[in-house]
């Protein structure tokens, strides 16, 4: 048979213990929420990196196909001044990639958010 042990706790200590447990529960829920957001961001990062890699490969193939048709003098001149032009291209590419990948995060009220609000309400009633 299981026996129960009863401990007498003052009302003030009981309220403090209740607050502490609610704060711990709130912290744990926030941690879960942050880890879920982190995993979503990692997935987005992977998608963007793969799209950037594809775009860079396309640009490289275009440059290789255009290079033989360029005159030699202009090619030398372009190599000398090419650093400035190269810096402009990645910005345009990233803008195009951002436009193509409108990854919107859904923001409906999740279970965690509702639980957090319940805990906040309980904490407010204890104060």
SSE layout and pairings?
Elements: H1 11-66, H2 72-100, H3 111-126
Search tags:
127 residues, mainly alpha, 3 helices, 0% strand
Gist?
The chain is mainly alpha-helical and 127 residues long. The protein contains three helices and no strands.
Descriptive account of the structure:
By secondary structure, the chain is an all-alpha fold. The protein has one domain (11-103, 111-126). The chain has three helices and no strands. The protein is rod-shaped, with a radius of gyration of 29 Å. The two termini are 39 Å apart. The model is unreliable at 103-108 (pLDDT under 50).
Cα shape: rod-shaped
The radius of gyration is 29 Å
How many distinct beta strands?
0
The biggest sheet amounts to: none
Fraction of residues in helices? over 70%
Number of helices: 3
Q: pLDDT below 50 for ≥5 consecutive residues: which ranges?
A: 103-108
Give the tally of structural domains. Answer: 1
Q: What is the percentage of strand-forming residues?
A: under 5%
Topology as a string of helices (H) and strands (E): HHH
Distance between the termini: 39 Å
Structural class computed from helices and strand pairing: mainly alpha
Mean pLDDT across the residues is 80
């Amino acid at each position: 048979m299981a026996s129960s042990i009863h401990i007498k706790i003052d009302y003030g200590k009981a309220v403090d213990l209740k607050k502490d447990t609610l704060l711990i529960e709130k912290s744990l829920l926030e941690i879960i929420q942050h880890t879920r957001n982190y995993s979503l961001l990692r997935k987005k990062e992977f998608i963007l990196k793969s799209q950037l890699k594809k775009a860079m490969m396309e640009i490289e193939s275009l440059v290789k196909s255009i290079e033989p048709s360029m005159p030699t003098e202009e090619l030398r001149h372009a190599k000398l001044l090419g650093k400035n032009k190269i810096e402009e291209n990645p910005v345009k590419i990233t803008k195009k990639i951002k436009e193509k990948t409108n990854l919107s995060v859904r923001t409906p009220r999740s279970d965690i958010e509702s639980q957090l609000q319940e805990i906040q309400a309980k904490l407010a009633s204890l104060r």
